[in-house]
Amino acid sequence: MRITEYLDQKKVNYQISSHRPSFTSQKLAAEEHVSGQYIAKPVIVQADGKFYMCVLPACSKVDLDALRSQLGAGEVELADEEEMAQLFPDCELGAEPPVGSMFGLATLLDKSLLQDDFIVFQAGKHDQAVKLNLRDYEEMVHPRILSFSYHLH
Please, are residues 3 and 112 in contact by the beta-carbon 8 Å criterion? Predict the structure, then answer.
């Protein structure tokens, strides 16, 4: 299922845009003319054998130790490309939308994104983006709010 079909099914208002292919979330921010703070970047981790979708700003990285502590997990590691390809067969690698519920994954939202009115993210392809009201995103995805990122300088 494509993200637009999922959003339509959930009756969520969104805007879709096309841009030059961007392969990093910071390049997506440049293409979409928004701060990296508004780009919702999904990072997939495996905690004690269970996959989670962590959603954080483009300008941040996942603090695995903070995540391990907040999840009460013994071991937390990043998913590899092979696991990503299996989890998101309909998406271009690296262009997964940060909507864990669409893929049967629990979504963990970094609290630093809560200061934004909207988020922008890849639409499953490197040349399309979705802009969505943050409140609509929260209502649709029901993410667990944690604090697990640190800002890149």
Answer: no
